[in-house]
Design brief:
By secondary structure, the chain is mainly α. The chain has one domain: CHAD domain (Alpha solenoid). Helices cover 79% and strands 0% of the residues. The protein contains 13 helices and no strands. The longest helix is centred in the C-terminal third of the chain and has 30 residues. It is globular and about 60 Å long. The N terminus is likely disordered.
């Protein structure tokens, strides 16, 4: 079993299958609190295993935002918006250095080692930002503010039906985004929006329990493909700015096209059915 999918199943078990819970609002609140606490713990553990910690922090906030969307109807728009903004800010705080690591890894995958390292040096991807391990005060402040806000959440009235509606809305959004990508396969921002929607759908599917394993497995594979597409998009933009017409740019563009085609094929299978049919098959309220 793929290790990423295994971790998602573990997260699904930890979430106690929300729809089967007697008080789903209490369980959603527990998930939100746990995710914030885990992110705070990962920041406290820096700089040990920096790259892994940064990845876990970013994924933790993506899961938080997915869970938050499940609870939006009970939270109300102002509280939801404020919480989502804090979570997004915390995730983005660790974005730039993560992108450098990924771009260098992509170059090593796409090119022979000498060309990859030379290209990475030209793009300024060698070495680490000294602020990466020291400038954590803003992130800690944001995390603390988010934890304090979550402590005042009232989700007692959140029902299984509310969760079903939110989950189905994520399915519907992802389906629409996929159709937009089909119409314009070279539009990287459209693929990025699709990726964000699929991530939300993936994490929510792992949380709520009833969707068949194939839903989670296929959503995980699709999210991975779209993540690679986004990383290649970032890399090709960088290469176009600094090494236009280079072999590295040609190879990266070719790989991005292949990944886009694969994502669209898998997406067509995952989002083939209308939302109402998906709701019936999943057995959701």
């Amino acid at each position: 079993m793929d290790s990423r999918f295994s971790l998602l199943l573990t997260f699904a078990v930890m979430s106690s299958t929300l729809l089967a819970a007697p008080s789903p609002g209490k369980d959603v609140l527990g998930i939100l609190r746990r995710l914030v606490a885990e992110v705070a713990g990962n920041m406290d553990a820096l700089p040990k295993r920096t790259q892994d910690r940064v990845h876990d922090i970013r994924v933790g906030m993506k899961k938080f935002r997915a869970a938050l969307r499940l609870a939006e109807s009970a939270l109300g728009r102002p509280t939801f918006t404020k919480s989502d903004k804090l979570a997004r800010s915390l995730k983005n705080h660790f974005g730039s250095e993560r992108d450098k690591d990924v771009q260098k890894e992509l170059l090593l995958d796409l090119l022979d080692q000498d060309e990859a390292l030379a290209t990475a040096a030209t793009l300024g991807l060698q070495g680490r930002d000294p602020q990466r391990e020291t400038d954590l005060a803003p992130a800690r402040e944001t995390c603390s503010a988010l934890a304090s806000l979550v402590d005042f959440f009232h989700l007692e009235n959140l029902t299984g039906e509310d969760l079903s509606v939110a989950w189905l809305d994520s399915y519907r959004r992802s389906r629409r985004a996929m159709r937009a990508c089909h119409k314009d396969t070279r539009n990287d921002p459209l693929f990025h929006e699709w990726r964000k929607g699929v991530k939300t759908f993936l994490y929510q599917s792992a949380m709520i329990g009833p969707p068949p394993d194939r839903f989670v497995a296929n959503a995980d594979r699709l999210a991975s493909l779209l993540g690679t597409h986004h990383d290649l998009s970032t890399l090709t933009d960088c290469l176009a700015a600094h090494l236009p017409g280079s072999n590295a740019e040609r190879v990266a563009l070719a790989r991005k096209k292949v990944v886009a085609r694969r994502a669209l094929v898998l997406g067509a299978r995952l989002f083939s059915e209308k939302p109402a049919a998906v709701l019936r098959k999943a057995g959701l309220p």
